[in-house]
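## tool: complex_structure
## caller: assistant
## args:
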Amino acid sequence: VVAVLDSTRAGRTAHECVGVGGDLPVVGDLDDAHRLGAEALLVGIAPQGGELPAPFRAVVLGALERGWDVFSGLHVFLGDDPELAERARARGATLWDVRRPPVRRPVAAARAARLEIPVVLTVGSDCNVGKMTAALELRAGLERAGCRAAFVATGQTGIFVSDRGVAVDAVPADFVAGVVEDLVLEAARDADVIVVEGQGALRHPGYSGVTLALLHGAAPSALVLCHQAGRDRLRTADDRSGAAIPPLAELVREYESAAAWVRPAAVLGIALHTATLDETAARAAVAAAALQTGLPASDPVRFGVEPLVAAVLARRARGRNHATAS
Amino acid sequence: VVAVLDSTRAGRTAHECVGVGGDLPVVGDLDDAHRLGAEALLVGIAPQGGELPAPFRAVVLGALERGWDVFSGLHVFLGDDPELAERARARGATLWDVRRPPVRRPVAAARAARLEIPVVLTVGSDCNVGKMTAALELRAGLERAGCRAAFVATGQTGIFVSDRGVAVDAVPADFVAGVVEDLVLEAARDADVIVVEGQGALRHPGYSGVTLALLHGAAPSALVLCHQAGRDRLRTADDRSGAAIPPLAELVREYESAAAWVRPAAVLGIALHTATLDETAARAAVAAAALQTGLPASDPVRFGVEPLVAAVLARRARGRNHATAS
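## result:
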């Protein structure tokens, strides 16, 4: 990534605007991005409903006019827009709609439940609490510990990061679990541990179905529960319905109950997203989560993912001993 | 319906072939169906994966050639097939793919949970255990009892029966709950009670996500648990994974727990599908279900839906008294 395009904040750095991204420059138009070496455009937003905002259209057209590839994770497929598709064709540019579902229509049948290697799924108290980040950090930590760890991307950003996967929330509902099952079985061919990116939350009224399909399609043996420290209500489309998030220990029981409808799974640890807290408050939140659940806890970005890696490795060792003993 | 098309069983009646359908004749080709007055073709199968079987193609083409409308509930959309679409256009016939999802992309936010009228959802121990039939019988029974009862169809056959609804299993997963929420809110404008057709099962590894999205999108206050008497294992795509179906009382607890993640709901009764049992065994199965769960039970087709109607009306009366008292 050479630049972030935001006409309202040009001249600043990513860090100055959103607190992460370091010195990455924010530029105001495609010309400035081009001067920095850009040759592709990524539509980096995920609005509820997934439409292309009207002001973005001219920018996408401008990028295609230059022959740049355009990557999009929107629910609306840019490649289905006649004007955009024609412009891409004329300029030899590629429109990559990463949310476009696969053509195949697999129906899950708990086949991933028969894998002997650990399958770890990140689950959450809500949307946007760090499930993808925790999964990526866990994969990296497992690799540092000498494991061949596979990351299964299930959302558009995960796909941009890992260059493969399926945005399961755009798959026709009957086939979400089946697509995830396929991804996990494919990843198992060349891995010692599989880490699956979770989506949504069992208590989210809009997305709980995606969450349960992932839980039953991936059929994990282990879960990592993710939560944003300080968030006490669900973020939904309708402010009035933002129900209270229950204590973490209750969420642990709920996810383990729902997993067991297909395959028993244990929550191995808690991944907290503490970016909005100062250092002292963040450490206190991690300690409180560990105390309340009796599980290892960390903010994998801020304090390291090692406690969660250790929990997965311990589980893997127990699984092997069990396999040897039986 | 004037005839059933089945080249392997022509000359018999529907009842002789499948035990229901009375004297409806089975015919071997479109000519015979035409002689009986047919002027439309309904593709009446729902194979896993939802493709059009190759032998059906010529029949669909033949029907369109005659100018017949063709209705389909397959996951594959006949209208997207260039040859079929062209034939329909040339002959002025309509291809109606009832599973085609709506263009709108609503995200649910538990809005249906604020309805004061009862919303009743049928849920099940597995797929194909009578959830649609129980819902249709319940609606009819409530109307006989003087209620304005709405039926919300969520699957292709329910849509064929009621001429409206959405096949939610074909909707992109993010919007299943939102589509159901919209359907329920729309039905509430003109009804005293809403009966929603359920789909799948919370323990089915392939379809549990659809089930939970329906449960949280419809946000029912009451559930009817459906089960086929004698079925003891889930029917999945992979025979090896057909897990045991737990006792009904345990399923009652599971559905009530999962509902409560968004809105508390009580299972009001059990609808048993007993068609494979003789009269004595069927009555014994109904009695056993009632005894085991402490709830009213019936086979709504064989023994009448009245026990379930009475349970819904009692619940409605309690809701009203509560509203008056508070």
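## assistant note: Chain B has a mean pLDDT of 94. The first helix of chain B runs from residue 14 to 18. Handing back to user.
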